[in-house]
Amino acid sequence: MSELNKTPSSSRLHIAIFGKRNMGKSTLINALTGQNLAIVSEYAGTTTDPVYKAMEILPIGPCVIIDTAGLDDLGDLGELRVKKSLEVLKKTDIALLTVTGEGFSDFDREIIKLLEEKNIPFITVINKKDIIPANSEFTEELKIKNIPYVAVSAQLKEEIHTLKELIIKYSPKEFEQPTIVGDLINPGESIVLVIPVDTGMPKGRLILPQVQTMRDILDNDGVFHVCKERELRWTLDKLKEKPKLVITDSQEFSKVSADTPDDILLTSFSILFARYKGDLMKMVKGAKALKNLKAGDKVLMAEACTHHAQPDDIGKVKIPRWIRQNIENDLTFDFCAGRDYPDNLSDYKLVIHCGGCTLNRKEMLSRIEVSSVQGVPVLNYGLCIATLHGILDRALKPFPEVYFQWLED
């Protein structure tokens, strides 16, 4: 199946499976998916690093199943594996804690504490019921503490359907992400999408935020027109009615702003994703921190994916160059990419993050929260570029609540 026909992993329900070694976590994944996706062995510690698999699980729908290393893994290497497993909590929508009928271990109680602290719903999966029946004291504890549970045999695929029903029941109701543009337009209104075709554009396809925005417009009964930046003025002249909104790639903000009449709202894909994936209100505050950078300050450039950097890469080259030209030359830029996001941000005055299209909303909000708790402002590429080009005021007008807060601050 073409990747364009699949639900992006970032938009799927993330189900993480935790538990000690040899609890049958990998067997449980195979039972849930109906496929032999995870390596199964009688030896403890077969799973070393978190393993991600995007799946369609009926009747749940599009999911990402995350298999983790045992919480009781031993030695220095085992400690690193457990740390990697716990990092999965940042993106977990619902957790399955896999145990046997003998009850919770100290390791299990520790992960329960973390799940409760982070308000992550979880289900206790009492596995191997065909070998170790659940004792009555354990099930009574679960009932008293109001912890949802089900006894299954992953090996024999018994009660797996019941587990799926519990996943549906206890998955967070707010899992569905907010609309990208649906609240900005009425049915029948049109939007112009400005999409440059340059060396950074994947060959033969559009990038994910552009595709998702198009789908969201269609879902909300809107109409969209697509053009390159040099064709925008011609496109607007040819339309019989003014579009409600123009959305541009952030790198073309200056030209598109100049070619878009003031009575047409303008923003960027990246700014739309700042609220779709994260918290636009908090990220806008990072724009003020950008303006206040001083000589010697350190800035972290954070990428969610690990794409091959182009010679004029937006995150590694262009934005640092623009900041040095327009704000302050004597700055230090550090870079991180993929799933590695620093826990300690105390050395930084600002985090500038990509749009986060490959992250699920839970993980993007987690990254924003990490920054907020440590008092380090964060903004994304689109907000940064709009600030540097002096058009952030205009780019925020489609979002009145954020726009007026920005003016007041």
TrEMBL record:
Superkingdom per UniProt: Bacteria
Cleavable signal peptide: none
Gene Ontology cellular-component terms listed: cytoplasm
The Hydrogen maturase F tetramerization domain, residue ranges: 282-398
Residues annotated as domain Hydrogen maturase F dimerization: 180-278
GO molecular function, one term: GTP binding
GO biological process, one term: tRNA methylation
Domain G: 14-128
CDD domains cross-referenced by the UniProt entry: Era_like
InterPro entries cross-referenced by the UniProt entry: FeFe-hyd_GTPase_HydF, GTP-bd, HydF_dimer, HydF_tetramer, P-loop_NTPase, Small_GTP-bd
PANTHER family attached to this UniProt entry: TRANSLATION INITIATION FACTOR IF-2, TRNA MODIFICATION GTPASE GTPBP3
NCBIfam families: GTP_HydF, small_GTP
UniProt name for this protein: Iron-only hydrogenase maturation protein HydF
Originating species: Ilyobacter polytropus (strain ATCC 51220 / DSM 2926 / LMG 16218 / CuHBu1)
